[in-house]
User: What shape does this take?
Amino acid sequence: MQIGLVTYTPEEVAGFNPHVYYSKWADGAVFPAARKMQNDATCFCDAKAIREKPDMVAVSKNGPALRKNRRINVPFDFVCPTNPDYQTKVLNYVETLNKEDIQGVTLNLYHFPEEEFCVCPRCVELWRQSGLNWTEWRAQEITSFLKKAKRLVKGTFAVEMYPDPVLAKERFGIDFESIAELVDYFHVPLSSRDYFTNYWVDLLTRNFLKILKKPAVVELSAEMLNNEKTEALLKTVAYLSRHNLMAVLLLVHDAENARQVAKFAVNNIELREWLKRYDFAEMARIIDEWAKLY
Ligand SMILES: [Zn+2]
Assistant: This one.
């Protein structure tokens, strides 16, 4: 198992690989490609674009897909995924990334906001013309967008997802079966403020490994800086290291944050003995590697 990073800054950090860099954000910020890294682009969440052109937003009978709409529960503001102009904008960006020497592209938030979206006049018309049921039509729209994006990616192609292994197709139009044919791996974000309670991480990892027909990486949040939280995080990574994951990725603020996690592990003799005592060989190996660097 590899141990990698997800960051908002394109700084390489020794001891971590692969490195996923957020190059296009849900607030609308867009950055140049990070060389040699996996560049992660947010597709249909763009608060800035929606502020500028409010009619781009995905809509439902419960109102628009905006965070401020309390009749629904969405974490970001969503553009309608069938908007041809916005699709072109995202695809042009993916093409621009691939002019640089990057490792590959991961797409994020490339799906519908929820099951009842989108009922804008264009979506309703496209659905009617398709002859498909609501779930199948929405999944087909999302898969066909991913196919267009994949054609532009020279290196590794991956997707994130809302981590719902059961209802992803009905809720978001994410069809894991057909997407598996397009991607090199799936990126499963299991974010939390802390991992003191971590049974759900193990549970969702097992579920995803069972259903995904391609390799998977799991992302955990590592932005916390106190010792108790860091120890709980590292023990959670240790349990994940017993599964057949390609990598665990740690989401950090910056390179220094990543080095602090590695240094904490290296210097925590009690933790390292605990890993050896309970036979977490893979996690012990990762920390032994860090000990050569930190
Ligand atoms: Zn729509």
About this structure: The radius of gyration is 20 Å. The pocket of zinc ion is lined by residues 58, 80, 82, 118, 120, 122-123 (CB under 6 Å). The longest helix spans residues 134-150.
